[in-house]
């Protein structure tokens, strides 16, 4: 169950939000082999004049940026899968948002199964119950 938090520079844009939510959710589910129906995605916007890279605002630079955080259960994705996801997500967001500063970033957060979950149960609990049924 990935939790995706995406911050995009600029003013809120409903059309972009819906498109990003759908396409990034699909990409995350397929690239990281996660169930799409258990994917949570939150999109927020941050003013370009208040977002700085190397001491200059994105507004001054004439660029856009994003910060993408994806939380997954530790040890459920390989190094190669994460590297591919970084490339694919960066390319997708560059295409959808446009004029992306190269210092836009992606952070995949690996959480221990005993500390991460949904619906009042940890991923470790789900795993143990699934193994007991085998």
Automatic annotation (TrEMBL):
It comes from the Bacteria. SUPFAM superfamilies: Tautomerase/MIF (SSF55331). InterPro entries: Tautomerase/MIF_sf. This is 4-oxalocrotonate tautomerase domain-containing protein. It comes from Kushneria phyllosphaerae. The lineage of its organism: Bacteria, Pseudomonadati, Pseudomonadota, Gammaproteobacteria, Oceanospirillales.
């Amino acid at each position: 169950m990935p939790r995706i938090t995406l911050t995009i520079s600029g003013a809120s844009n409903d059309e972009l939000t819906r498109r990003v939510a759908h396409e990034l959710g699909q990409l995350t589910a397929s690239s990281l082999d996660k169930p799409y129906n258990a994917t949570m995605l939150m999109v927020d916007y941050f003013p370009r004049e208040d977002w700085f890279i190397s001491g200059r605002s994105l507004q001054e630079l004439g660029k856009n940026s994003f910060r993408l955080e994806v939380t997954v259960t530790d040890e459920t994705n390989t190094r190669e899968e994460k590297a591919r996801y970084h490339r694919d997500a960066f390319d997708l967001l560059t295409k959808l948002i446009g004029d992306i500063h190269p210092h836009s970033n992606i952070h995949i957060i690996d959480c221990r199964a005993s500390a991460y979950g949904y619906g009042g149960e940890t991923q470790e609990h789900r795993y143990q119950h699934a193994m007991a049924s085998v």
